[in-house]
Amino acid sequence: MTNSEFTPVFDRNTRHTAADRNRLGAEPLLPETAYQLVHDAALLDGNARLNLATFVSTWMDNDADRLYAETFDKNMIDKDEYPSTAAVEEHCWKILANLWSAPNIDAAIGTSTTGSSEACMLGGLAFKRLWQHRRRAEGKDTSKPNLVMSSAVQVCWEKFCNYWDVEMRLVPISEDHKVLDGHDLENYVDENTIGVVAIMGVTYTGMYEPVREIAAKLDEIQQKTGLDIPIHVDGASGAMIAPFLQPDLEWDFRLERVHSISTSGHKYGGVYPGVGWVVWREEKWLPEDLVFRVSYLGGDMPTFALNFSRPGSQVLLQYYMFLRLGFAGYTEMQQGAQDVAVFLAQQISKLGPFQLWNDGTDIPVFAWSMIPNYTDKWDLYHLADRLRTRGWIVPAYPMPADLQDLTVQRIVVRRDLSLDMAEKFFADFKAEVAYLKALDAPMPTAPDHPGFHH
Ligand SMILES: *Cc1c(COP(=O)(O)O)cnc(C)c1O
Fold first, then answer.
1. In this chain, where does the modification N6-(pyridoxal phosphate)lysine occur (predicted)?
2. Residue nearest to atom 1 of ligand 1 (CA)
3. pTM of the full predicted structure?
4. Model confidence over 191-201: pLDDT tens digits?
């Protein structure tokens, strides 16, 4: 029984043109047949450029594509075989250390990762290990570490706490405290707190958490209790926006309490999926016993990573982006995305049924909800479905704990959503809202719509 077949369109006489989906075929296919099968399977995916849900790059320029094709065989871990790629990795994290105001980039330390998730795990592990060292030296219990963060953290922090047995202490967000802002923090931290996570660009809404205020609150707590609690900034998106669009905002290594910062190179860094970064302000914040030196690939370059082999080409692409754009180019690119976000937020808020949660002036991301009791005929899930019929992906989802009754819809503006495309999107959006507003009976209840996190 075969279930992937091309005949007659791609029929190739005397050779197999069919394959079983879930079992290895007994015989080979011609490469062009296998290509066409996989190509056609990928065709059925959504159109990435119309996906306004994801933060992750869906476009790079031709030179980047060429570079990618030339370097896709490089293995990042093999620093002895590819010493030049390893050197480029170091250039990149030093560029970031500098961009994030490290007082001395030669005293800093950093690494590339597969994305922010791995970068956050490494930041969390450094916190946990440092705390363990300190507690052991003091002869104290190390069995109950906790990490404090907002209830609107990205799922990677839940993973970190789950995988490494750290208690997750969530500070709930509310209408009054839309982000973690230091309010009430004294009720969440104690001697077992390994650190506090501050998010630059909350995934749910795109808002910045005020890292300076969080740090000030922790200073106050230290004065009262002696507890010296470090901050990791999860700057998955914002760490590549704030240095360019909000240069006066103090969220980075200008604050001494910020030990480490992570970002996704594949979000506003502008690289295709597969690269993230984490940098520690000073080498002493990355405990030496987490760093490995392996000799079996030759050499003994130190590494701190969850993976072993992984592609090196995205790291080269990151360097390409840094060289290609420079400070002025990144500023222009991020400003362009922000202009589109602010334009769309204003247009959507003027339509009537919606109220903005935020306006796209932090990172180029904004969310809105329905005006309470506006209608019982449709909701944001229906609107998301209607937009999907036109190819646009704009997810609706519930807010996190304590606000879970509030449904929001969110748009992430990436650099490849031009103002021209945004205007076309808004025309479709307006037409679908008009369709829903004209309903004279309620839409059927939408099937279960799971939350959507990227
Ligand atoms: C996207 C995101 C992550 C996870 O990043 P990946 O690069 O996809 O692993 C973590 N934190 C925040 C705030 C994010 O927006």
1. 267
2. 454
3. 0.93
4. 999 999 999 99
